[in-house]
Every structure is written in structure tokens, then in C-alpha cells.
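Cross-posted from the bioinformatics board.
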Amino acid sequence: MVKSSFTPRYVHMSQQLRGLILEGTYKPGDAIPSEAELMSMFGTARGTARQAVDVLVSEGLVRRQHGKGTFVQLQPIRHSILNMGGFTDSLRGRAESPVAHVIEAGLTEIDGHQYFRMVRLRGTRTPERTTYLSLDTSVMDASRFPGIEDIDFEDRSLYQILREQYKTHPRRTQITLSTEIPSPDVAELLGEPSDGPALIKTEGSAFDQNDVEIEQIKVLYASRVEFNLTTAIAEFPGGEL
Amino acid sequence: MVKSSFTPRYVHMSQQLRGLILEGTYKPGDAIPSEAELMSMFGTARGTARQAVDVLVSEGLVRRQHGKGTFVQLQPIRHSILNMGGFTDSLRGRAESPVAHVIEAGLTEIDGHQYFRMVRLRGTRTPERTTYLSLDTSVMDASRFPGIEDIDFEDRSLYQILREQYKTHPRRTQITLSTEIPSPDVAELLGEPSDGPALIKTEGSAFDQNDVEIEQIKVLYASRVEFNLTTAIAEFPGGEL
DNA sequence: TTACTCTACTCGTATAGACGTCTAGACAAG
DNA sequence: CTTGTCTAGACGTCTATACGAGTAGAGTAA
């Protein structure tokens, strides 16, 4: 039996639409094409077009409004510390440069399948000192990235290597926020006091240009990292709580 | 136009099924009736039966397995706040409605200036039960919103009142994420176990259409609330870490 | 001007049917 | 006993159609 690379149409459509939203063709507040327009754009039935939009609705990327249209919700977070890909960018123009220190890296077997697992301390360095900001754990499919266990990740970015050596282009991450009280070891690594606060943790996956999962990520942030968010408030006819 | 008590069939079906699951007719691990069986049980088309099950799937109450059936999940329902602004909207199409319970509301004086301070428990209500999701504290300038202390906020949304009675249109919030270990009282209110995890807290301000600060907000979220985010990954010529 | 109606467009719900893939068990062939 | 095939049942995808209901603007009547 061949593990076919068949992609349902609605998934393909939702990928296209997500791309247009993330790249800014449809901006927050804009209406995306109506279901009728999507039908003719992609040559599908309305049910399929709706199913594609369902995906984006469930991701919170768009919101439907009866009788009006479907609108882009919030600007997805970009260039913030949450954005694993934009880490360096957020530091541009500062007298700081990004550093990564690999704590652990190697192959590991889970359920008979080989994975590459890497734990890194990441942070910034100034001439005076180095400040670690997060402890990142990445797990990737070793068979998809052969030889990855021999690469030195202190020098180059993980995503840069994925692009240059594996022709894989990370496009988005889907993550969940929660809290974690660090173990004494981890607190030490991140420079947290032993009786410090619980830390913010993000867990999720990164997806490539084909919406294939390429990495499972867990990041524990030091308390000195600030998460600043701006949210838009929309007005609904029915009001909201 | 009559505000009919019309309930979509799929909602009615999902309510019935949810009831059967919660009352134990279908226990965790059991298969619920197949889509074909649901069709004949309720006399609907397969699409409608699937739509009903979709609701339960999105609530995490059941899990579909291709080729086998649809099974009752073991995990408790988790709520998801996809976007902090879209609280009500995220509940659309579900058999849940938003509720707010005012714990405390009144004027308070800080530095010789009068402020309106309100603490609310917010959450969702289904026919079966009410689930509180967050404890919100709002502080607003009393002189800008005269008479606000006499308004009943259990009925109507705060922002709805600001728009309708004070011609103030909240447009964005600027918030910071952090963690907090709830006091026993607060844990009790949010339904958290006494030895539960640290909670996610957001603190910040809301701004109106003129970018004037109108509200200071602090929200403590129950651990059952999921924060799901999608981030975009950009490519830079210089690479990133 | 004001208020109402009409209409086009949008999303919401529902039906009926078709075909594909996956699972698990029955059964036959080796 | 192992392997392969077949089949029934279950979910996954997709089409085509229909009608309901909310929105917004154009046009019309008072």
C-alpha cells in the first residue's frame, strides 16, 4: 500500500488562503473571497469551499459574519519573541546578537521510529555578557532530515539549515501556551532564582510550505522575557461579553 | 419578525448526544452510534449527522477514527481562547453561551481620583452546566463614564455598554502575559484544584478609537483555557537563529 | 426628508448521492 | 500457520441543489 501524498482539496484551498492572509494580501478586517467566489476560483462545490474556510475559522484566523462575509481576524503574531523564526529579526538594530548553546542533541527512538532531538539554550550576547532567554526542545523526523545529527547548530540557525540543506521552508507554527514550574536544573540554566515564578511554556509544531509537520517544539521562557501582545477588538451586531 | 426558538437540527442532535455521553449511556472508550445509525435515529441526512458530531469533536468530547467509529474521549472538555478579543465569537455555533458573574463592582478612590473597579467571573454556559474560564478585573476612570457604577453588567457586555451609552469604541488592547499562582479563594472560584498549576495572567490596557486609554485590565485564566496561536515564519536573507 | 420595500449578495442549514480509504473479520491459498 | 483476498461497515471527501436568514444599498412612496 502506497502512502499517497494525496491532499484533500479543502486542505489545499485552506493552505492557499492561509498563505494569502499571512503574507498580507488579506489584512485584518478585510473580507476574504465569498464562498461563491471561492467556488469559481478553485472550481469546487460550495461545501468544499466552506470546509476550507472551516479550517481557518477553527484556527481563529478568520471570522464569519452572517449576511456580510468572512473577515480576517487578528494580525497573526509576527516578529515577536513568540515567533521562533523571527528571533534574530527582533534583535536587529540592537547591540545584541543571538546565541545558541546546544545542551543535548542526538537520535532517539520512539515507537520504532528514529527522531532527532535537540535541546538548546537560546539568548542574546552583548560585549559585556550573555543572557539566556529560553530553553528550546526540538524533535524532528530523522528519516526526513538524514545526517541532521552531525550538524553543528551553535553556528547556524536550525531553520536556515532546513532551507539550505533540506529544501524545507518553515512557514508557520501552531502553538499552545501554558505554564511550568522549572526544575532546579532548568532554573539554574535560565538564571532563575530557586523560588522564582512559574514560567511560560509554549508547545506545538512547525509546518513547512506544504503544511507538513516538520518539528515539534517546546520552549520554556525565562521570566525576564516579556510577552507583549496587541489585540484588535471587533464590533459585532449582537454585542459581545 | 419573530425571534423563533428554532434550533438547527444538528445542534439539537449534538445536545442529545452530549447528554447521553455526560449521563453515561456512552462511556469513555465506547463508540457512539455510527453516522448511518444517527441518520436513521434522527431521520436526517448524513451531512447533518456529521455536523452534529463535529460539534462534539470540536469540544473534545469524542474522537473520530477512520474506518472504526467515533469514540467517547476520556479527557475533560477544554475551552479555547483563540483570540483574546473574540470571546463570544469563539462560542458561535456551539451549544454554549457566554456568562458573566459580577463579584465586586463599585467606585474606589486612588490618589484623589475616582475609579470604577469591577471583578467578574466569566465563562460559558451549556444546558448542563456553567464553566468559569477567567477572573477579570477592570479599572476605569469614573469621571469619563458617569453613572457606570449603577449599571448591571451581568446582562450586557461591558464594551457594548461603552459603545451604546458612552459612545466609546474599544479598538485594541495592549497586554503583557505572565504567570500567577492563584490564591485558594481564586482557585476555588475558577474551579482549580488546590495544588493546580500556575495560571496564565494578562495585564494591560484597552484603548478607544482615539487611542485614549479607557480601561486597565487584569485577567487570570483557568487552566482549562487553551491559548492557541498561529505564527508566521518569514525568511530573511541574512538568516536567523 | 423620512420610512418602507425590493433586491442582490452573503453566510447558515439541510438533503441526497457518489466514491474513496481504512479497519477488522472471514475465508481461501500457499 | 502464514499470507493474500474479499467484504461489510465506518469515517473522509466531494458534488449539486435548495431554501432560510441577515446585511446593505437602491429605489419608491408618503
